[in-house]
Amino acid sequence: MSKVYPDAGSALADVVRDGQTVAVGGFGLCGIPEQLIHGLRDAKVKDLTVISNNAGVDGIGLGLLLETRQIRKMVASYVGENAEFERQLLAGELEVELTPQGTLAEKLRAGGAGIPAFYTRTGVGTLVAEGKEERDIDGKRYLLERSLTADVALVKAWKADRAGNLVYRKTARNFNPVVATAGRITVAEVEELVDTGTLDPDHIHTPGIFVQRIVVNSRPTKHIEQRTVREG
Asked: Signal peptide: which range, if any (predicted)?
């Protein structure tokens, strides 16, 4: 059975539902699965819990889902340049769980590896520690952090073969590999699709066993999150 779908809408049609947890790759606007986010918006599913490093910017990436009020809760590392995120947060309309960036990455990695929880020193003695189990190990204090998995994972890759093996490009790799393994169903948006066996096995970042569906977006928009220019 082919993993390749003609567009984002068809790849998500029988996968996404109200109330799901969706993990989304990317860092700022780098390496985001833009067409899949558009497909999620167009599916009109609501009450979503979205796990992502941040919520994009107004009108781009996950900012689109905030505008349509499809996100009920965000699990993220930082707010980002998103006025709608801040407005909904301050109004009490959006539940937010802020997590240190490295801890968020490890929560996803551990979830994908079948590890339910782990101890870390990050956050000890801060607001992050509230309500969490603590333990002394070798004379140092650690927090117990629960791992993360998602009903659906949306990732962006540079290349894929038809078996779903993925190759990321440079910094666009960021959170995508750990998001890919944490999803029960993982859908990958790729710029280039090649025949199975074409990719060098040593260059594959995410094995195809983790990827159930593929959508090709050969001409993605290369957004810039913040642009600073010098007056001439």
From this structure: none
Residues 6+ apart with CB under 8 A from 176: 25, 26, 31, 155, 156, 157, 166, 168, 206
Six-digit token string for 61: 């990436």
Measured CA to CA in angstroms, residue 68 lies from 37, 48, 53 at distances of 12, 12, 20
Q: Are 188 and 34 in contact (CB under 8 A)?
A: no
CA distance 105 to 176: 10
Name the token pair of 84. 């709608």
Report how far residue 46's alpha carbon sits from residue 24's, in angstroms, rounded to the nearest whole number.
Answer: 16
Q: What is the pLDDT of residues 94-153, one digit of tens each?
A: 999 999 999 999 999 999 999 999 999 999 999 999 999 999 999 999 999 999 999 999
State phi, psi for 209 to the nearest 5 degrees.
-60, -25
Q: Are 140 and 162 in contact (CB under 8 A)?
A: no
Spell out the domains of the chain, with CATH numbers in brackets: 4-115+148-216 (3.40.1080.10)
Q: Which amino acid is at 162?
A: R
Residues 71-94: tens digit of each pLDDT: 999 999 987 678 898 899 889 999
**Of the candidates 40, 26, 44, the residue with the CA atom closest to the CA atom of residue 152:** 40
Enclosing H/E stretch for 194? strand 183-194
Q: Is the pTM of this model over 0.85?
A: yes
